[in-house]
Amino acid sequence: MPAGQGSPGVPGPAGDRPEPRPPPRANTAEQWIQSRVDRYGPVSKLSLFGIPTVLLTGAKANKFLFFNPALASQQPRSAQRIIGERNILELMGEDHKRIRGALLEFLKPDMLRLYVGKIDGEVRRHLDEHWAGRRTVTVMPLMKRLTFDIISLLLFGLERGAVRDALAGDFNHVMDGMWAVPVDLPFTPFRRSLKASASARRVLARITRETKAKLERGEASRSSDLIACLLSLTDDIGARLLSDKEIVDNAMLSLIAGHDTSSILLTFLIRHLANDPDTLAAMVKEHEEIAKSKGDGEALTWEDLAKMKLTWRAAQEMLRLVPPVFGTFRRATEDIEFEGYVIPKGWQLLWTAAATHMDGSIFPDPDKFNPSRFGENQSASVAPPCSFVAFGGGLRICAGMEFARIETLVALHYLVRRFRWKLCCKENTFVRDPAPSPLHGLPIQLEDKVASP
């Protein structure tokens, strides 16, 4: 790698040979990252997908990657074509600021508190239909459907029915080719994803047109759902802030990000709690106390969520141990320097959550599940800034972080109160493809505690 005046080159394998990568379905990525750090230090170069790449690890590196304006998001070409080129991950500068601001308008606390009751209703219906009275269930596909139903209702106003079922089917195939080689040939995962994406986009475009008409007739309001919110946003002269294409592209991204990551978190929490009776008992106690303060059948409120402190600490600890997103890429838009190393324009940079999440100097006994790491009495100095990065950081920190918290807390409130469960598989393993997935989708033996919540 070229070095600046007097700047050392980034260490890495001799020459420009591509660096061997871990098998995509093997759960060895963390070990692979650590072996590179052990060999070359926190900054090293390699070749990934045929592109010169710099791996940066550590809290300082995370801060550099999250806050440097000269770094653009770098998504696989396959993901860009499937989601759409005007999604927030692909944009920089004023375009990124404009669209992120629009999404945050929908996701701000004043708006989210209006949706807690809707999420509550979706969770209860899901558990009644797919969990209650069952002797065994497979958790991951059920959690994916639950979070899909929640987010499709709140983002697009889609009630249960044929349209939502069809969109769910499309999205199962959309995910197939997100990280595939972008070769558009018959029978490839990428072709399946493109076809599913085109079908989903037609549905979202139709919803956008229908919502626009409802707004004009006064049958919908800015707070009805994400599409209505985005259509309602205007600039100082009354012009719409987002085009229809930008709305569809970012609706696609929001649906993918919102339902996939939350379902992974819920699945792995259920897996862990099966073998952690102390944490489970403490969570049950927390939620039973909340339930006692409410009338029969009364939905949870924003204020109830604020009382679920232990549950959210456990969720954060699970995000530390098994982050849904292993890491992402950035691209240098100009020559930049980090810790004396010059990184040329056009090179991509890779960061991973595990590099700090599993660092024993930051999180003692990093393999141990310990929700108290995130307790109220923990000093901010215990973990340096940009060490816990399950939601990213900086200008591109996950816009849906608070939405994910609400989904998780509401779902766990009813799960831990209504059911007991045991793991069906003795082998407690998971793979990354590229997101983490437990063995066989996590089948469990299920027992109802009570007939109804």
Task: Describe the structure in your own words.
The longest helix is centred in the middle third of the chain and has 30 residues, at 244-273. This protein has helices at residues 29-40, 59-67, 77-83, 93-107, 109-112, 116-130, 139-156, 162-174, 189-217, 226-232, 244-273, 277-292, 302-305, 309-321, 354-357, 401-418; strands at 43-48, 51-56, 71-74, 136-138, 327-332, 336-338, 341-343, 348-352, 419-423, 430-432, 436-438, 443-448. It is 47% helix and 12% strand. By secondary structure, the chain is α+β, with helices and mostly antiparallel strands. 39% of the residues are buried. Pfam families: p450. GO terms for molecular function: heme binding; iron ion binding; monooxygenase activity; oxidoreductase activity, acting on paired donors, with incorporation or reduction of molecular oxygen. Residues 1-27 are annotated as: Disordered.
Largest beta sheet: strand ordering: 1-2-8-5-3
- Main sheet? 5 strands, mixed
Proportion of beta-strand residues: 5-15%
State the separation between the terminal residues, measured CA to CA. 61 Å
**Could you say which overall geometry the principal axes of the C-alpha atoms support?**
globular
Radius of gyration: 22 Å
Mean pLDDT score: 86
Q: How many domains would you count in the coordinates?
A: 1
CATH-assigned homologous superfamily: Cytochrome P450
Annotated CATH architecture = Orthogonal Bundle
Protein name: Cytochrome P450 716B1
GO molecular function, one term: monooxygenase activity
Keywords: Heme, Iron, Metal-binding, Monooxygenase, Oxidoreductase
Cofactor: heme
